[in-house]
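#struct-pred

JT: dropping the chains for the assembly here, can someone run the whole complex?
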Amino acid sequence: MAMDVVDYEIFGSEMQYVEVELDPGEAAVGEAGVMMYMQDGIQMDTVFGDGSQQQGGFMGKLMGAGKRLLTGESLFTTVFHNEGSGKRRVAFAAPYPGKIIPVRLSDIGGTLICQKDSFLCAAKGVSLGIAFQKKLGVGLFGGEGFIMQKLEGDGMAFVHAGGTLKEMVLAPGESLRVDTGCVVAFQPSVDFDIQFVGKIKSAVFGGEGFFFSTLTGPGKVWLQSLPLSRLANRIILSAPAAGGRSADQGSLLGAGVLGGLLGRDD
Amino acid sequence: MPAFWAACSEEMIDRPFCGRLFGPGLPGTGIPATGSWGEDGRLRVSPEGAEQEELLAENPVIATAGFNAASLRINWQAAGGVYAFIIESEADSNSCRVSAPPETIRYFTSAVGARIKLDRRFRLGGAFLGLILLLPLIGIGVFLLNSDKVADWAVKHISSEQEAQLGELVLTQTKLRMKILDRGPAVDAVNAIGSRLTTGSVHRYRWFVADRPDINAFAAPGGVVVVYSGLIRSAGSAEEIAGVLAHEVAHAELRHSLRGMIKSLGLRALVSLLVGDASGSVFADAATRLTELRFSREAELEADDEALRRLVAARINPNGMLRFYGKLASEQRLSPSAILSTHPATGDRIERLRQEVAQRSENWVPLQVDLGPVRMILP
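RK: done, full complex below.
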């Protein structure tokens, strides 16, 4: 079926949101809870499953919803229809600092494999499925887990990534070693595997863990500089409420000495 | 797969198959292209769009590639660099294989082999992970089925000294919760009745009276027996008290509380293994508590038999026990929590005991304990 063609604009630099323009009759699918604002004339409709038309019948819908649950998302998605007579806009905001990746699925062959939980919104008709990582080593140590998300269709899809985004094109046979957890999305033609860091010393003291992810071309890959889990880890570590250390800036002796002596007023 | 192969092999070679072409000078995300094997055994790849010219692949290398090795990759070296033609769909892969020249068959064989190996390892791994997740559940099942054997085994390894220590611990804790008398006429009376029931026991029995209005008594491991004053007050004769004491002594001698403890400890450990660190959660609590009750119900019947045996051996009239159970039954009718109480329907138990008692008509020796003054002094 023909996908709805949507125009979009991305605002913001580090904490972005995407504004999607819908022609009359067009619709966009958003992850539950990411809508930021919508203009008059846009109808919001919550549907069970992913809102794509491919799944027939109740069981099909149930399966689709179950898959969405597996990828860590809500059972429901929200469809935004433009019921008005002119162009209307609806905006979706990324839930944590990072970049929004716009991907026209028809440009990359119709399928995109991405990190679970990274889907933001898409033109109606894009199907959101799951792709099981069948390589055990990659599932266990690749940092992305066994369950990945598969976006299929030929419209626009938006996924979000943490930190700064790096888009890379790998030539046939070209490979790239990536820290585990930093892979956001890739074309299905890309080989996703893991590789031991090489030396026990590096594995134990190098701070990169025991494995790298390796991506081998051909195809396009999207990398994130700051996975949310890493950011969350750092925040917890430095949160005084969670037993972290509060380091005041500008202290002459640094936070360690004076801050430790004077700063503990809680 | 073999059926598909047979159906296709009768068709002409030179079947086109769709895929995506990557290579020098092409967009990084690849372009759609159609491939076909020529008569001369060379692969011809024609990209979509008029401006791209057809490519001829020399000495192509074919392998599985991509996410989950789900697609087929045909690599070849050309003047500009390495080209890759990726075939994603299963049908196109089959078309490619069917029309491929004989010298490339080995590539397809190893590609299929690699894919089968990946699938098999994935299933094996999945089954293994599932087993690990299910292991505590299986453990609980096995434990529940064999809990008696496990408890027997564990109880056998506990010495009577350890049991006495445990009893001491229970006594200390009980003293914190209620007022315990360890001397006085009430304790003496209980002692006089109880010591006739416990001749020849490995435990050194100690008798206590708790200042509580409920009709109850309990035996801790190691010979600590506590009788509530409410029980003494409501008992009509010393034989009735003897019946209850015999029952509690039977619990202690059969090590029921120890076994119950071991069972519930084991169950708690397994449940917390299953639901994580949620031993205090409602679910874990309810699950373990319900099964603890089941242990007690079987134990009560066993204790009844043992109590009767002890009463007969001590030549105490067991009709006292029957009378007292009758009193309990009429009181229980007022509070209808029979299913969840630790005591099985008292009516059934009385009926069972009555038949047993009827078979033994001996010369009972009356107990020389006068409860009158004891009741007067009771706090």
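JT: nice. The domain at 7-234 of chain A is CATH 3.60.160.10 (Double-stranded beta-helix). The mean pLDDT of chain A is 82.
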